[in-house]
Amino acid sequence: MYRKKKNLTVAAPAEDQTSYSLSGGVFKEGDLSVGQDGLNIADHAAKLLAAVTELSLDEPADDDNEEFSIDLPNVQSDTSLGVVNPSEAVQLNDLQRLGVVGRGAGGVVQRALHVPTGRIFALKIIQLDVTPQVRKQILLELTTLYKAQSPYIVKFHGAFFSEGSISICLEYMEGGALSDLCQKSGRIPEKYLCHIAEQGLRGLQYMHKDRHLIHRDIKPSNLLLSSTGAVKISDFGVSGQLASTISSCVSWVGTVTYMSPERIQGKSYSVLSDIWSFGLSVMELALHAFPYPIKTEEGGLGFWELLDYIVDQPAPVLPASESFSPEFRDFLRLSLQKNPKNRPTASELLQHPWMQMHDTSDCNLFEWARHNVVEPVRN
């Protein structure tokens, strides 16, 4: 039995002191305001966000905690602008709520009908009597979604403040989370795993290379499936800008058991921490079980023992008895390198031989799921 060592500590965040205000039916925090008419970001803040996307991402830094700062333009204009294309925006009064489809920290996700068009959306509703940390996550999620333009990221259709809560209107993903699919379906064929990996990596490539973001909470429950078979990344409440501290992102966010070893140890980390989490998620989908020996009635490791195990023991590998291809095994081996310097980027993994091995052009994971789940995929 692996024994827990007593010297492992995990860094927790300081209490966030960011102030916010409610005035005239509008939620305001910094340069962001949300009212019944939707979300606005002050023009100078929007330009700062745009400026960040123009920066080139440095190589991952050593764990020396040296901060890397970037000077952003000093723009003082104060004009507000809408967040989404007007043709894609919705109004809160046009949404008819159809029921809860999920719950998370600080709020629920409801299925909602857009009455004028008949389209279905997901409405993430967050009450404002939440901790400062959750308020900060709201701000991060809204500013991230504001700029996200990728077919591999869940689409944003607006945000509203009403009756003491913020409602974020998102693309509705009919297939739900891949964590649910993993629990309800039969063994996912390797070809479909490759399809999942390719789309997830393209989403990470966009976040890391184009938007300079670390997601920090990649896991199967944050990979969602559409009715067309597309896999998209969701839940940006814990993603963070790489603008001022690329080399020293030391914080406590995300689901700890999917964290990379360097994050568990409280060391500096980079976009490559997302690669570890993604590799672990793909392995879980392949095995239909979390790759580490978690605590069950039959035994396994408790929480702290598991964290020690992730840090001190070799990374998990696919069992030799399973009939997975050598290319897939190598893909996971590279993704789960304990030393982040040895992990490939999302762009590099997209060039891996396993990515070229399968023709996934005819893969529709949603249709596969409809025929291979114990419980039907929701419509």
UniProtKB/TrEMBL annotation:
Query: What are the UniProt keywords, alphabetically?
Result: ATP-binding, Kinase, Nucleotide-binding, Serine/threonine-protein kinase, Transferase
Which InterPro entries does the UniProt entry name for this protein?
Answer: Kinase-like_dom_sf, Prot_kinase_dom, Protein_kinase_ATP_BS, Ser/Thr_kinase_AS
Reaction(s) catalyzed by this protein?
L-seryl-[protein] + ATP = O-phospho-L-seryl-[protein] + ADP + H(+); L-tyrosyl-[protein] + ATP = O-phospho-L-tyrosyl-[protein] + ADP + H(+); L-threonyl-[protein] + ATP = O-phospho-L-threonyl-[protein] + ADP + H(+)
| SMART domains according to UniProt | S_TKc (SM00220)
Pfam families, sorted: Pkinase
> What sequence ranges are listed for the domain Protein kinase?
95-355
By sequence similarity, the record places it as follows: Belongs to the protein kinase superfamily. STE Ser/Thr protein kinase family. MAP kinase kinase subfamily.
Q: What is this protein called?
A: mitogen-activated protein kinase kinase
User: What species does this protein belong to?
Assistant: Sphaeroforma arctica JP610
